[in-house]
Amino acid sequence: MNKLNKLKYAGLTCVLISLAGCKIPSVVQKAENKTTPEVFANSSNDTLNSAKKQWKSYFTDANLNSLIETALQNNQELNITMQELVIAQSEVRARKGEYLPFVNVGASVGVDKLGRYTNIGASEANTEIKPGTETPDPLQDYKIGAFATWEADIWGKLHNAKKAAVSRYLASVDGRNFVQTNLIAEISNSYYELLALDNQLDIVKQNIDIQTNALAIVKLQKEAARVTELAVRRFEAQVLKTRGMQFSIQQQITETENKINFMVGRFPQPIARDHKMFENLTPATVSAGIPSQLLENRPDIKKAEMELMAANLDIKVAKARFYPSVGISAGIGFQAFNAKYLLSTPESLLYNFAGDLVAPLINRNAIKASYISANAKQIQAVYNYERTIVNAYVEVANQLAKINNMKQSFDLKAQEVQALNQSVGISNDLFKSARADYMEVLLTQRDALESKFELIETKKSQMNAFVDIYRALGGGWN
Question: What are the residue ranges spanned by the domains of the chain?
């Protein structure tokens, strides 16, 4: 065995010894055994899950469903994500092609004129050749054939790279589903916000009428010397303040409409809606199922899982780079100095076959760096997977609590509004009979207005919880 071969075998031995100490960090194995709580807090262990419902069944407002359907076709972010799938799919095709043989077909034509005073030209000139049988000068060259190269994937490097690309493609699919889930939730929340603003605008307009009438009464009482100019100015200021609120709400309505139009993928235009039914909206009963169903329903969890699988495969690919690679090349074709002899067999037939074994020996820093980076990315993927699961559980728990708390808050707020509405009428009557001063009337009107606004906000929070629990459970993409 010559020195070069000895050196190669020694290098290969060093590589295998160094790899014997390569271990996957223990934190990676935690993800495989990741468990979730058996049930959500203050919830049963019923497996019925609202996330299984299609969004058309979950949301019953025809106007809202029309917006969602249009957005799923025209939303730019969703369409951008769709192209991510095409890119990921192409990557799978590229990785699959790498561990298949590369076969090419080619043809070439050339001419070669040797100089007489070159070593080859001089040797040919001094060779005795019979007349008419000399080597053609200039010498032409015609060649046609096929040749193939193939890297034998004995360590699974190329195969694992393809599987990693497949996992990333599946992660892209789940990423697209996650974008769709969030898009449906954002449009729904904005739609309910728009209905709430419409109702608040109606309340403001009603209060402007009430306060304007009260101002007229105060002016009459001033003429009768029952109140002073101060009372008139205070009532007038209250009317102006409420009118200012009207324009502020109108601006919010415009911005919310445009926000919805942007998500739907169109230029600003009025949003079709029936805001009068908002106060009577009652969120349907939501079934949260059990926490383990989040692993199947939540697209972001599935995406993180696919990314973790891809990172695990990247480790194998990086590790395989330490091993020798085996390459095979072969070719077959025809070659002749004259075109009429090109297909003559066997004289013009040529073929070749070769194999090579190459292993990294000196300066493997790039391979080591790639392996270390793959390990670090794998650990990142583990932590991201764990974080995504915990975040999903927290989101569901928060929304379940919010649904319950907002229901109770709305019931109490409705009673408060009813009591303050009665107080407004009573204060007006007492003021007319001089049994209450104008400040009591103003304060009662202000409290009644604020309570009505708060009631609308509570109803909006109720509907937001109804939307957000659907998103948190992983609904909207199936």
Answer: 23-97+156-323+370-473, 100-118+135-152+325-358
Tokens 């090579």 sit on residue = 356
pTM score? 0.83
160, 307, 310 from 167: Cα distances, Å = 10, 7, 5
Q: Mark out the alpha helices in 33-156 (DSSP H runs).
A: 55-58, 62-74, 76-98, 119-125
**How far is Cα 421 from Cα 362, in angstroms, rounded to an integer?**
87
Beta strand 139-152 pairing with 325-336: antiparallel
Q: pLDDT by residue (tens digit) across 66-86?
A: 999 999 999 999 999 999 999
* Band of residue 62 on the pLDDT scale cut at 50, 70, 90: very high
d(CA 144, CA 19): 45
* 100-118+135-152+325-358 CATH, one of 3.40.980.20, 2.20.200.10, 2.60.40.10, 3.40.50.720: 2.20.200.10
Spatial CA neighbour of 30 closest among 387, 299, 395, 295: 387
Tokens 């972010």 label which residue?
A: 77
Top-level class of domain 23-97+156-323+370-473: mainly alpha
